[in-house]
Design brief:
The complex is a heterodimer of chains A (about 625) and B (about 160). Chain A is an alpha/beta fold and about 625 residues long. Chain A contains 25 helices and 20 strands. In chain A, the strands form six sheets. Chain A has a five-stranded mixed beta sheet with strand order 9-10-8-7-11. A five-stranded mixed beta sheet of chain A has the order 13-12-16-14-15. In chain A, strands 2-1-3-4 form a four-stranded mixed beta sheet. In chain A, α8 packs antiparallel against α9, α10 crosses α11 and α18 runs antiparallel to α22. The N and C termini of chain A lie far apart (about 70 Å). Chain B has seven helices and four strands. Classes of the chains: A alpha/beta (about 625), B alpha+beta (about 160).
Chain lengths: ~625, ~160
């Protein structure tokens, strides 16, 4: 493919590709997202390829392995167009039926359709499924329409047209004004107004400036950036190109975390295609703009999601943050003005330009515009990636989209925003998803992780979990984070191990306030949030641990013991075989017993017993 | 067999900013970063030996000891945590008699506990040599590990 010379050529290519795309009679899309990969979608895709080949359907059917469709719980997902049939949990052996039924005979394979969880009614179309219906999938919906390895697919759906518009008709300031009018705020955690970042970087005086894409999605429980970068990489590239034009940058970086090797591969492939087509390189679309992007791989350090640490890491150094009194917009990467946004933020930019700031600002709340992708996980029925307009309530996400608690258990709380966020109780589920409101309530949207917790989740243990995480991930540069978090963890350990004293609650609050005020970087400042929010909303659980030496959820090892209920035990030996400590004894068909002297309280027997005969006390 | 460093260093010598990228490539090619590799990289890039060690120790992606033939990675992210990642880790460490992040003496198994693998919808998640095992349970994990031990015919099954 020769380079595209100007925007006219791009428009005609786009029209040509859009027309060409429907050359085949059928399009089978197989979700290749992180969830479906884990459920072996590639075996389904391989089988589809074989069946298409052996049935002589090569010209008639196009097979496309796409990025994440969102409904990971139901993977592997296969969608057949133009009928728009959604087949969940497809196994390689189901493929023949799909080809014979849907492709050759044009009918739905009833057995494979998604069924409404309550009514049992078959729901063939994605948009009728309760998980999808309340969503506003402006970004994620693109995943289904493109093969991540095909720039042609992206151009066919209007990709790079926003870049064309910008280069031809808009000045850099105009671009920034448009982004400002859209109200776009950073999706990585801070929620800082994107246009203000761009304007500051544009205003900075320097020959060299950098735009950087933060794909170091380190928050546990978040995987939307991975889904976008692996599923629709050109949207990110186009967003960066528009940002680079607005700021006046010639070089960009995508910093991808080490745990995402496929994202690195897809991003590199997308970059080489974009270079071939002339979207990167010199004199882009004949505009005189020069810009290129490199991929930098992270090394598996949570702190590198912080802007200054990330820039140090790109420079090949240890990823330690530095004080923020010197702004990265003026002195960032290689000490040059730098503009860092995360994957989801960049990917929003092309649609804002092509559909207009007004379209974007119409969605959401006063202070939070557009949509947000949430990773809905934990003890909820429907897990996956969810994209909703800001202002949607937590309840709508957990109950309508998520289908409520898993295994019929009552949902107790959601944890949002990863280690910098907090836990919100079920009584606050009518709160809207909104940057400022969640922050006021002691949590944050962060990058969009939403982990659902039920009655079997101990909130003190959750606080301990995050403190252990933060202690492990602290870069160690500043004392408040390095020592403060360790002290917090010691206190919480005392409480979970039955050594807690009433005065320690106050001490936790005091120490948390000090860490929040004095830590060097944003990650350190927000490190006490999980402790503070659980103390705030679930104080009675702390008190039960301290006063009664009891863990209400039955999680904290030192405060619980197990016994076998003789009325329920069938003597099947399942728990006996499962116990790694050898603490369970009993003959076949005889009631078993647990020796608490040997028992490690790991809880494995609980999961292995099919008669609910193991009782936690 | 260690892969020679020369092709990895080619075209990137005397460029200190390439340190992490080069270490990534060595880690990927050899599965670990040997003391000899650290010394060579330090000399060729002009980065002090201490700084190279500092970087290698700072980032979790780099390993200063060889990895096992079977690397079992357990995700300890929040979603996995609330769905029972801890019993899984104890199960794996107990079965293989090894500490997290370390390798069995026969070199057959490494157990890693990592902070999030980004497939949270399928928690709890375990990866064996790059292959995902979603919705893991202690029983499934035991079957997986026992199966691997049997296939290896090794001695890790103490």
């Amino acid at each position: 493919m020769p380079k595209i010379a100007d925007t006219k050529e791009l428009s005609s290519l786009s029209l040509h590709l859009a027309a060409h795309q429907i050359d085949a009679d059928f399009l089978i899309s197989v979700c290749g997202g992180p969830g479906c990969q884990a459920t072996l979608c590639h075996e389904v895709a391989d089988r589809l390829r074989e069946e298409i080949e052996s049935n002589g359907l090569n010209g008639k059917v196009r097979l496309r392995v796409t990025g994440c469709h969102g409904f990971c719980e139901q993977g592997p997902i296969v969608v057949v167009d133009p009928m728009n049939v959604f087949y969940p949990r497809v196994k390689p052996d189901d493929v023949k039926e799909i080809i014979d039924g849907t492709i050759r005979e044009g009918r739905l394979v009833d057995r494979l359709l998604y069924r409404h969880p309550v009514t049992g009614k078959a729901l063939p179309a994605e948009e009728d499924i309760p998980f999808y219906r309340p969503q506003a999938r402006t970004l994620l919906s693109q995943n289904r329409m493109v093969d991540p390895l095909s720039i042609e697919d992206y151009i066919a759906i209007g990709g790079y047209q926003a870049l064309g518009m910008v280069l031809e008709n808009m000045g850099p300031e105009e671009v920034i004004m448009e982004v400002e009018a859209s109200g776009l705020r950073g999706r990585g955690g801070g929620g800082f107004p994107t246009a203000r970042k761009w304007a500051a970087c544009r205003a900075a005086k320097s020959e060299e400036k950098y735009v950087i894409c933060n794909a170091d999605e380190g928050d546990p429980g978040a995987f939307m950036d991975r889904a976008i970068l692996e599923g629709n990489p050109h949207a990110v590239l186009e967003g960066m190109l528009i940002g680079a034009y607005a700021i006046g940058s010639q070089q960009g970086y995508i910093y991808v975390r080490n745990e995402y090797p496929k994202a690195v591969e897809v991003a590199r492939h997308a970059l080489s295609q974009a270079r071939e087509y002339g979207f990167l390189g010199e004199n882009i679309l004949g505009s005189g703009m020069n810009f290129d992007i490199l991929v930098a791989r992270g090394g598996g350090a949570f702190v590198c999601g912080e802007s200054t640490a990330l820039m140090a890491s790109i420079e090949g150094k240890v990823g330690e943050p530095r004080p923020k009194d010197v702004h990265t917009a003026e002195h960032g990467l290689w000490n040059k003005p730098s503009c860092l946004n995360n994957v989801e933020t960049w990917a929003n930019v092309p649609t804002i330009i092509s559909s207009g700031a007004g379209w974007f600002a119409d969605m959401g709340t006063e202070g939070s515009k557009g949509t947000k992708i949430l990773a809905l996980t934990g003890m909820v029925k429907n897990t996956g990636l969810v994209e909703v307009a800001f202002g949607t309530t937590i309840r709508a996400v957990v109950e309508d989209i998520g289908g409520g608690g898993r295994n019929g258990k009552a949902v107790k709380a959601v944890q949002t925003g990863g280690p910098s966020g907090g836990c919100l109780p079920a009584s606050l589920f009518d709160l809207p998803i909104d940057f400022d409101i969640l922050w006021e309530k002691g949590s944050m949207i962060g990058s969009g992780g939403l982990v659902v917790m039920d009655e079997k989740t101990c909130m003190v243990d959750v606080a301990k979990y995050f403190l252990e995480f933060l202690q492990d991930e602290s870069c160690g540069k500043c004392v408040p984070c390095r020592v403060g978090v360790s002290r917090l963890l010691e206190i919480v350990n005392d409480i979970t191990e039955g050594r807690g004293k009433p005065s320690q609650i106050e001490l936790l609050e005091e120490l948390s306030a000090t860490v929040a005020q004095t830590a060097l970087c944003g990650l350190g400042k927000t490190a006490p949030n999980p402790v503070l929010s659980t103390l705030n909303y679930f104080r009675e659980e702390y008190e039960a641990h301290i006063r009664d030496k009891r863990c209400p959820a039955g999680v904290c090892k030192a405060l619980i013991s197990y016994r076998v209920d003789p009325a329920l035990c069938s003597g099947c030996k399942a728990c006996l075989k499962a116990c790694p400590s050898g603490a369970i004894t009993g003959a076949k068909d005889q009631v078993h017993s647990i020796d608490m002297q040997i028992c490690d309280r790991c809880g494995i027997c609980l999961t292995s017993c099919s008669h609910d005969a193991i009782v936690v006390q | 067999m260690a892969v020679p460093l020369e092709p990895i260093l080619e075209g990137r010598k005397s460029q200190p900013q390439q340190l992490i990228e080069i270490l990534q490539d060595i880690q990927e090619a050899n599965g670990w970063i040997s003391p000899e590799a650290v010394t060579t990289v330090s000399g060729e890039l002009g980065v002090p030996l201490m700084e190279v060690y500092r970087v290698v120790n700072f980032y979790k992606a780099f390993h200063l000891e060889p990895r096992g033939k079977n690397v079992i990675t357990l995700c300890m992210g929040t979603a996995c945590h609330v769905r029972g990642a801890n019993p899984l880790l104890r199960q794996a460490l107990g079965l293989l008699k090894v500490e997290a992040g370390h390798t069995t003496q026969d070199g057959l198994f490494t157990v890693d506990a990592v902070n999030c693998l980004g497939a949270c919808a399928l928690a709890p998640l375990v990866i064996h040599n790059g292959v995902y095992h979603p919705n893991m349970t202690p029983a499934k994990l035991r079957t997986l590990i026992r199966g691997l031990q049997k296939a290896e015919g090794g001695t890790s099954d103490a």
